[in-house]
Amino acid sequence: MQMTSFRKIVTLGRQSLLPGNFHHSLLMVTATRWFIAHSPQVPSYPNTLSSLVPHWTEILKKGCVADAEINVEIILLYMLKKSVRGNLQNEDTDSGKVSLLRKSYHQHVSTEFISEVNELCRKRAQRMPVQYVIGEWDFRDMTLKMVPPVFIPRPETEMLVELIKTSDHLSREDEVKFLEVGCGTGAISISLLREFPKASAVAIDSSMDAVNLTIENSKRYHCQERLKTYHHHLDTTCPEFLSVLPRFDFIVSNPPYIFSKDMCKLEPEISRYEDHRALDGGPDGMNVLRKIVRLSDYLLKPSGMIWFETDSNHPKMIKEWLENEPDLDVKHLNSLTDFNQRPRFVQLCYQPSSELS
Ligand SMILES: C[S@@+](CC[C@H](N)C(=O)[O-])C[C@H]1O[C@@H](n2cnc3c(N)ncnc32)[C@H](O)[C@@H]1O
Hints:
CATH architecture of the largest domain: 3-Layer(aba) Sandwich
Shape: elongated
Number of strands: 9
CATH superfamily of the largest domain: Vaccinia Virus protein VP39
Bound molecules: S-adenosylmethionine
Radius of gyration: 22 Å
Oligomer: single chain
Number of helices: 15
Structural class: alpha/beta
Order of helices and strands: HHHHHHEEHEHEHEHEHHHEHEEH
């Protein structure tokens, strides 16, 4: 799996939507810390990064920002990367970033550089997610543009892409057609289009900001020709623009899935800055998910798949729901776990009764 990015350590506030769900790739950050701790003990002169890190770390800690030092380092790396863009071949690799930070740590930087770092750190101190502060974030092998309030892709979603990529029913050479419901930044659709060079996709989102961002990110990765993006709020009826299209091989969605009662428990980074319509899945977190399943008769080819990312309670709930809905031609195939061994992904299969007889 391609989950080695330096930035993957930090997602939002205390990491992802699920409590305690830390991403594992702490290694690069730990390595940077080691380099810094073991670099020659030069005093912290003003106008050097070595003076900015402790200064802002202290302020962020006081503001209860989790992983304060890492956040400051991410902001510094972003600024350094911006200022050396074009001069460093490997600045986008983890080791490139670490060595860039190490090399620059005790060097003098301009007052403009420092005032921009201060501005960005101030935003972070107000609990703006670091992804919005720097306006970009890594997803698998891509760096996508991030704009508030469009939902910031979480590391678990990389697993969802990986599961689809490695599933038995798809091959890289297939001319698959898929639909994504709720595309956000476009992370899932763009990744899949890059994995399946002959695939094409339709991505919909009820937020115009998300639609615009998906289009922009798809252009960044040169797959806009294969991705049709629509501003649409999926409800109980199949919209005409979808019903006239050929049926899809699969539907993928990371729908809003937080139980409404849990919305008040979110970290300030999420509750203040991200679109609540991207998060709140209704009383049982399954409002949008159910709508997608109920529309499979109009959208999917026989034996077509539905892939969901969900809350860890949902795989069991979805299985039970489908067992109690014999009229639905959708069957539960698999529930799969994330890197913390929590059931987080569901694979369903559309099997119309006419095809079975
Ligand atoms: C959890 S975010 C997922 C975004 C992106 N796919 C990702 O994984 O990073 C859910 C997205 O669904 C969109 N959304 C919510 N309800 C929707 C609906 N009924 N129809 C279409 N999109 C919807 C939200 O605007 C949001 O962008």
